[in-house]
Automatic annotation (TrEMBL):
Alphabetical list of Pfam families matching this protein: Methyltransf_25
Organism: Thiobaca trueperi
Matching Gene3D superfamilies: Vaccinia Virus protein VP39
Gene Ontology MF terms: methyltransferase activity
Key words, A-Z: Methyltransferase, Transferase
Name of the protein: Methyltransferase family protein
InterPro entries, A to Z: Methyltransf_25, Pre_MeTrfase_YjhP, SAM-dependent_MTases_sf
Highest taxon of source: Bacteria
Any single GO BP term: methylation
Domain named Methyltransferase: residues: 40-134
């Protein structure tokens, strides 16, 4: 079981697989007022940077599940490196339908809401692991500027403009689901560069090291086209943020 190999190639050197930078995760961890010993569940935990740094900085206990074998191995190595291997556990597996045995203080899905069919389904899935009074974290894109054409939306790797909302609409949608938005930290364009531009050097070096690989043509063509696509579309039109939600009192789901 694994994710498509192209991601394991282009993001092999990333610690954070989204437009957040280390300072943004630090800001978020502080904003959530995490107590030592708090449990944090992370579906689609990638290379584990959020859980490992929060374990180091706030003493949390973390469980991450990710379908990439490479990212999961990197997460385990990072936990050793930061001296938090006793506090965090990384499971290589499918997070779709994953419910924790023990209720958690924070239940997160940071940039992988497709695992439960979108934001609404993912919030519902995370709720099944959350203790009463706990916090849900959703990392999700939104339109920084509404694309004037469908072509521009596709340039951002969206299927259509309707895939994402503008920020006030995304915020309103959490209310419609029955949740209070209690905190948020937003990525910025420099963060998008860290996520996207870091792939370019990785691809260039991978091409030099793997001239006979089946994916050479695909990686070659991405390295040629991606910088311009990123500058024209993603960097200008796409926003991204992590949203902290709590169910509105009286509407809590079981
Ligand atoms: N939350 C991480 C990773 C975000 S990228 C971070 O912020 O760095 C999306 C992640 O979802 C990738 O690590 C990918 O391997 C993982 N993923 C994709 N489908 C998945 C699934 N069905 N179950 C678990 N993880 C999945």
């Amino acid at each position: 079981m694994d994710i498509p190999r192209i991601f394991n190639i282009t993001e092999s050197a990333h610690r954070i697989h989204n437009p957040f930078t280390p300072d943004k995760f630090a800001t978020l961890g502080a904003a959530l007022r995490l107590e030592p010993g708090a449990r944090v569940l992370d579906l689609g935990s990638g290379s584990g940077e959020m859980l490992c740094t929060w374990a180091r900085d706030h003493g949390i206990l973390g469980t991450g599940i990710d379908m990439s074998q490479l990212f999961t191995e990197q997460a385990k190595r990072r936990a050793e490196e930061l001296g938090v291997a006793q506090q965090v556990k990384f499971i290589h597996g499918d997070a779709a339908g994953y419910v924790a045995d023990e209720k958690t203080d924070v239940a997160a899905c940071i940039g992988a809401t497709w695992i439960a069919g979108g934001v609404a389904g993912t919030v519902e899935l995370l709720m099944r692991s959350l203790r009463a009074g706990g916090i849900i974290l959703i990392g999700e894109p939104y339109w920084r500027q509404l694309p004037p054409t469908e072509d521009i939306a596709r340039g951002c790797f969206a299927n259509s403009i309707s895939d994402f909302l503008v920020l006030p609409e995304l915020i309103a949608s959490f209310g419609h689901l029955g949740y209070d938005l209690v905190e948020m930290v937003l990525a910025d364009q420099d963060g998008w560069d860290r996520y996207e531009a870091a792939k370019w050097l990785t691809m260039r070096r991978w091409l030099e090291a793997n001239p006979d690989d089946d994916l050479v043509e695909e990686v070659r063509s991405k390295l040629t086209s991606e910088p311009e696509r990123h500058a024209a579309y993603t960097r200008e039109y796409l926003g991204w943020g992590v949203f902290a939600l709590m169910p509105r009192l009286g509407l809590k789901k079981a």
